[in-house]
Amino acid sequence: MTNTAQLALSVQLPDDEVFDSYLSNANNTVVSQLNIFVKGTEKQGSSQPNCFYLFGLTGVGKSHLLHASSAYASQLGKTSVCLSCAELLKLSVEVLDGLEQIDFICLDDIQLIAGNQVWQQAIFDFYNRVLEHNNRLLVSGNQSVAKLGLTLPDLHSRLSWGLTEQLKPLSDAEKVMALQFRALKRGLILSDEAANFLINRLSRTMSNLITSLDILDKASIREQRKITIPFIKDVLNIS
User: Fold this and answer.
1) What is the model's pTM?
2) Which of 126, 148, 166 is the last residue of a domain?
3) Is the dihedral of CA 99, 4, 152, 163 positive or negative?
4) For 95, what's the count of Cα atoms within 13 Å in the CB-facing half-sphere?
5) Is the same domain home to 132 and 224?
6) Neighbours of 20 (CB within 10 A)
7) What's the number of domains the chain is made of?
8) Which of 93, 147, 103, 102 is nearest to 125 (CA)?
9) pLDDT tens-digit profile of 44-54?
């Protein structure tokens, strides 16, 4: 792998996207399964697939759980990398060369390669190399494998081989808890009233809510003000 490829793949994982910060009771079973998949601790006599396909609508926390899985693998002493198809598509398929030797690999937003035959073939070949090395691949998408629109039947088949789980949307109460948890990590106090105001006035996807929280965090530090509803209205220019 070239130095350019290595540099492109040196992605810093968000330090607040771990399993403990994924607050969704409806998805506890999926999180438990991911823990087992990362550790590779199957029951004696059973054989766990090397691939895990995780899907769900935008904003349910797929990227969060991929980052959390990658971070957990590193904590366990495994080599790990988390790749985004949005970034991979900007690069040559050669960027994947040699990555099959990594113990735990995450591949986010597989739906983005649906219209790209070159990348579909590259991911299929990469999947096979990962299997040959007996390493593990965690893949996310916004639809079930059958609805991804992949035009390479072999890749469709490979993704269907492993474990598959769907993430359920977070409730508003869970989004409030998640925002307050993120705020607390930043040393901020976000009241129920302020959190609910954000959820009701902004896009309800967690990614957009977290981005708004980041903006409020910086503004709060700059202006030395608490995050109140009037402050939110002023900073985010909403009524």
Assistant:
1) 0.83
2) 166
3) positive
4) 20
5) no
6) 9
7) 2
8) 93
9) 445 678 999 99
